[in-house]
Amino acid sequence: MALWLIVIVLVALATVISHAQRPNFSGTQGQINQTQRTPDNAVPDTASVEWYHIDQIRDLHSFSDTILDEIHIYNPLEKGKLFYQHLGNLGSAARPLFYELPQLHAKLDFGFYDFAPYLKRRQNIKLYQTNKAFSKLAVVPGSNQQNFMLSALFSRPFKNNVQLTIDYSRIIQEGLYSNQSTRLTNLAFVIAKKYKSRDMIISYVSNANNAAHNGGITSDTLFNQEFSNFRTRIPVALGGAQTRHANEEYAVNNYFKLSRFEGISFRHELAYERGSFKFFDESLNNEELIYYGNYATEDRGIRSFLAYKKLETSLMGDLIWKGFNVSAGINYSYYSINQEATNYSVNDLSATGAISLQINDKMSIYSDAYIGLGSNIAEYKLDSRANIDLSEGMQFAASATLERYRPALIQQQAYINQIEIWNNSFSKPLRNTLQATIKLLDLGIAAEISQIAITNPIYYDERAIATQYNGTILISQLYANSHHHLRSLHMKHQVGLQNLSDNIFNLPRLLSEHELYWQDFIFKKRMWARFGIRVKTVESYIAADFSPVIGVFHQNLGDREDFLYQADAYISFKVDKARAFIIAENISQTINNQVFYLTTDYPTVDFKLRLGFYWDLYD
User: Fold this and answer.
1) Which of 55, 130, 245, 263 could form a disulfide with 320 if both were Cys (CB 3.0 to 4.6 A apart)?
2) b/e per residue 508-547 (b: at least 16 CB within 10 A)
3) How many whole angstroms separate alpha carbon 8 and alpha carbon 14?
4) pLDDT exceeds cutoff 50 at 30
C-alpha cells in the first residue's frame, strides 16, 4: 500500500511538467538552480543583513531569503539531517534516530537531553549585523489557543555602533491524548557594541521547557472502535507526571584587536548560568507503581530534582598570518550542584587550541583540541578536518575525531525522593570517528560515510537503569542526499543507513525522507507557489522505550514496530514579503487507517491540517 501511494502521487504530480524538455540538475540539497526563474530577492537593495555566531564574529554570513524552501517543515525535529524519535506531540522529548553523540558546549554533562533540539544557547543563536531594522515573524496556529507555535526575531542598529538582537520562540501543544501537553519558551537577548579596537557582546538566554507525561497508551485495540477518533478516550499509563527543565545564562564577551600587531586578537568571556531539571508525579496508584518500577521508592509520589549554578571565565588568543590561523585558550568553570540529598561542587580547568591553514584556493585543513586539567582531567577531544575542491563541481572532505569524555552526571549518581537509586563509578568512554564526504554539485548529490568506535559506552537498559557496556561497539553509517529538478518539478531525497555491532541504543538500520514538488509563478507571476508531497519512512525495528523520570530513551527488548511511512501533502506560497503554507499531515492515514509508533506506546500524529504564516520585515 505504501509503495502504491507513493507511485500514484508521483505520477499525478509528474503530469504538470509533461511539456518539459531535457533535465536540469541543481546543486546541493535545498538550492534552486540558478537558471530557474525566481522572484526578486526579498532583501531590499538598501538593506544589509548579515549574521554570525558569538564564537566566530569575523565569519559573517549574508542573510538570503529562502523563498519557499522548507517553510512547511515547521517542526524543529524534522529540520536538518533526517528526523528525530519523539513522543508523538510537537515539543515533546526527542533524540536523533540517526546516531550522533550530543555536542556539548559545557564539558560537564548533566545527562538531560530530552529537550536538547529546542534549546537556545549563546553559542548557537544567530547574531545579526544590519544597517536598518530587520524582523522575522512565524506563526503556526493550531485548533485553539492551547495549540500554536510562534517565533519572532528582531534586530536593529542604534547610534554609536550598537546592535540589538532579540530571538524568541514558543511552542504550546495540548496533544491528542490525555496528559500529553507541552509548553516550551525560549528567549535570547543580545546587545553588541563596536569600539575602535574592541567589540563587546552582552547576552542573555533563557529556556523554560515544560511537559506533561502520560507514559504512553496502555492498549492499542481501541483505535477502530466507536468514538476512538477522540484520542482522549484511549487509556494512558500516567495521569499526573510533569517535567520542567529551565535555565538562564548571562554572558559578557570582549574581543580585543591590537592595532600595532595586525592579525593578533584576544577574546575574554565571563558567563553565569543557573538551571534545574525537575520531574514529579504525586500520589501513585498500583498501576503507576508498576510502571515506574525501580524508580517508585514510595507510593506517596516521585520527585527527581537537580539544580546547578555555573560560573565560567575563559581567555583566548588568535593569530592570523597569510592564510595561517592559530588560536589557544584556557577555560575555568565552577559548578555548584544541588541534588537535594547532596550538595557538591565541581571545578573544571580546560586548555583549548586550534590551527587552520588555507594551503591554496582548493585545499584547507583545520584542527582543534581540548584537554581537561581540573576535575575533568584525562578528558580530551581532538578533531581534524581537510577540505579539497577536486574539480569545479566536486568537493571532498575528510575528518577524524578522537575523544574521551566523562559519564553524564545523572548516569553516575541519581536520587528519587532524596533516596539514592544508584551510585556508579563508570570509566570514561572513548569514541573515535572517521568520516568522509563527497559532493557532486553538478549532479545534485552528496554522500557521507562514517565509522564510529565507542569503547565502554553508557546506555539505559530495559529497566531505564544506567549501565556501562563492557567492550567496543562499532557503528557504520552512510548518509546521502540529493536534489534534482526538471524545469519546475523538484525531487529531494535523504537516506540514512547505519549498522551497530550491538544495537544497545535501539536504532533503526534504515530511515529516509523523500519529497516531490512543483514550484513556479502563478496568477500572472504575482505569486510564487509550491505544491508538494513529503514522505518519511523507517524500517520495521524494535523501537526504544521512554522513561520520563530522568527523560531518557532506554533499551526495549519487546516486539518490533511496523514499517513506518507517513506522507504529508502541502501547498506553500509567497506574495511580496509574506509567505504561508497549508499542510495535510499524515494524509496517508486516510488511506491505510494505520497508527504508527516511533517510540514504544507513543503513537505518532494523526491526520490533520495545519497552517503557517511567515513575514520578513525591513525598516
Assistant:
1) 263
2) beebbbbbbbbbbeeeeeeebbbbbbbbbbbeebbbbbbb
3) 10
4) no
370 grid coordinates: 581540548
- The answer, yes or no, to whether residue 9 has pLDDT greater than 50, is no
What tens digit of pLDDT does each residue of 40-77 get? 445 565 778 999 999 989 889 988 766 677 889 999 99
CA distance 83 to 41: 30
Q: What burial class does residue 321 get, using C-beta atoms within 10 Å of its C-beta: 0-12 exposed, 13-18 middle, 19+ buried?
A: exposed
Place of cell 488511506: 591
Which residues, in sequence order, are CB contacts of 70 under 8 Å at separation 6+?
A: 30, 79
- Measured between alpha carbons, how far is 459 from 466 in angstroms, rounded to an integer? 6
What's the DSSP call for residue 217? B
- Cα separation of 512 and 97, whole Å? 11
- State the SS3 of 124-167: CCCEEEECCCEEEEEEEECCCCCEEEEEEEEEEEECCCEEEEEE
| 506: nearest Cα among 114, 97, 100 | 97
Q: Answer for the pair 517, 532: CB distance below 8 angstroms, yes or no.
A: yes
The contacts of residue 159 (CB under 8 Å, 6+ apart) are none
Separation of alpha carbons 126 and 373, rounded Å: 31
pLDDT in tens, 104-143: 555 799 999 999 999 999 999 999 999 999 999 999 998 7
Taking a C-beta distance cutoff of 8 angstroms, is the pair 238, 281 a contact?
yes
User: The sheet that has 127-130: what strands, in order across it?
Assistant: 56-62, 49-53, 127-130
Q: Given a cut of 60, is residue 26 above it in pLDDT? A: no
Burial of 325-353, coded b for 16+ CB within 10 Å and e otherwise, reads bebebebebbbebebeeeeeebebbbebb
Specify the amino acid at residue 525: K
554-583 pLDDT, tens per residue? 999 988 999 999 999 999 999 888 999 999
Short-list 444, 445, 465, 469, CA closest to 456? 469
Q: How confident is the model at residue 281 (pLDDT cuts 50, 70, 90)?
A: very high
For the record, the C-alpha cell of 341 comes out as 540529598
Distance of CA 168 to the CA centre of its chain: 16
| pLDDT computed for residue 395 by the predictor | 96
* pLDDT higher than threshold 80 for residue 478: yes
**Is residue 39's pLDDT more than 80?**
no
3-class SS of residue 336? strand
Joined together, the cell numbers standing for residue 427 give: 570509566
3-class secondary-structure state, position 442: helix
The set of cell numbers assigned to 580 is: 504561508
Angle made by CA atoms 300, 306, 312, in degrees to the nearest 5: 170
- Three cell numbers, residue 176: 491528542
Residue that the C-alpha cell 514529579 belongs to: 280
Report whether 583 contacts 70 (CB < 8 A).
no
CB 588 within 8 A of CB 566: yes
